[in-house]
Every structure is written in C-alpha cells, then in structure tokens.
UniProtKB/TrEMBL annotation:
Residues 2-151 form the Bet v I/Major latex protein domain. PANTHER family: MLP-LIKE PROTEIN 423 (PTHR31907). Pfam families: Bet_v_1. This is MLP-like protein 34-like. SMART domains: Bet_v_1.
Amino acid sequence: MGLMGKLICQTSIKTDGDVFHDIFRTRPHHLHTMTPENIQGCDLHEGEFGKVGSVVIWKYFIDGKHMVAKERVEAIDEEEKQVTFNVVEGDLLKDFKIFVISVHVDTSGIDSLVTWSFDYEKVDESVKDPTPYLDFVLRLTKDIDTHHLPK
C-alpha cells in the first residue's frame, strides 16, 4: 500500500455543463443553497471568485462530522471546463500531506459528464483512502443537478 494515491469518479448530469462548471469557477459560495446537507458555506478568504490563486474556506458535512477546508484555486481551464483546488489547511490535512481536488465537465455528449479526481498523499500507512469523499462529491453533483432541473 502506497502513501500516494488518486481516486476518480464520474457521473452524468442533465444540467447544462457550462452552468455546472460556472458554479465551481465563479459561484461556489452559492453551493450551500443547492446542497445544504453537504455544504454549509463557502467563503472567500483572499482573491476573487473565478481567479487562480484565490483562497476559499469550505464548511461541509461528511461521515457525520462538520469539517473545514481552506483551498487555493490552482487552475481554471475554460476550454476543458475544469477547476482544480489544492487544500492548504483544514481537517483533511490531519490525514493527508497533499490533497488536490479537480472537477471537470465534458459537454460533448447528450448529457454532460462530470469527473471528480482526488490526488493525495497520506501522512502514513495507517490512513485509509479518502473514498467517503467520492460519495460526498457524487451526492453534491446530484444535488446541483436536481437544483437546476425544471420543477
């Protein structure tokens, strides 16, 4: 078992992929209204929403626990519809030296395909892979999709 790892999950959405991408690019602070069971808040700590180098603080609920993560926006690729966040402080760094989250939206099909990936390095061999976070982002994705579908 290695200390470095990568987890990937994909799901399709009916929501316009550009809208989904824009939420993570410029409006992550709106997520708490779309998925309040998962996200309690997203506050801008420094910089500007939609800009590389900006820092946001996430308050979220996973595995029965309230958690906090401070993340720097490492990359925004408009053409590929991908946003990459690097966790720089917070609960995740108790178990991981490195935790990078990417969300990519492929709009080339009938439905858009959302791909989440986590690149990480565990602090030691006793730490489990962050698989609960895959379930978390899938729930989050479905909530966003449901929020944007016609009622």
